[in-house]
Amino acid sequence: MASGVHWDRVEGTMLADGSATLTIRYLHMTKNGEAITGIGTGTQMAPNQRGIAKVTAEGIMWTSASRLSHLNGGRWTVEGEVNTIKETVEVRDNFNFSNL
């Protein structure tokens, strides 16, 4: 994805077993001022003994920027970890654009 600033909102519904279902919405502004938006869903597994929970998510993206129009309808996937003790999230993988 193009460099710039990224904001996202993750809404989670905690389940009785400690896992959660996630809804992700994001806005990425490129350094050229182009907006890319996306939405997706994911799963956060129950945390292990160290308080680490695996996260996977996937979704779709759009942009009105003509230069980036090839991203429209592109699918993305991410994997990462949530440290429930430190309350931090780390996404290690890049977006994978499966339609490109």
pLDDT below 50 for ≥5 consecutive residues: which ranges?
none
Q: Compute the number of helices.
A: 0
Instruction: Characterize the overall form.
Output: elongated
Give me the secondary-structure category.
Answer: mainly beta
Q: How helical, in percent, are the residues?
A: under 10%
Biggest sheet record:
6 strands, antiparallel
Strand content: over 45%
The secondary-structure element order is EEEEEE
User: What's the number of domains?
Assistant: 1
Describe this structure in words.
This protein is mostly beta strands and 100 residues long. It has one domain (4-91). It is 0% helix and 57% strand. A 6-stranded antiparallel sheet has the order 1-2-3-4-5-6, with no helix packed on it. The chain is elongated. The two termini are 12 Å apart.
In short, what is this structure?
This protein is mostly beta strands.
Structure keywords:
100 residues; six-stranded antiparallel β-sheet; 6 strands; elongated; mainly beta
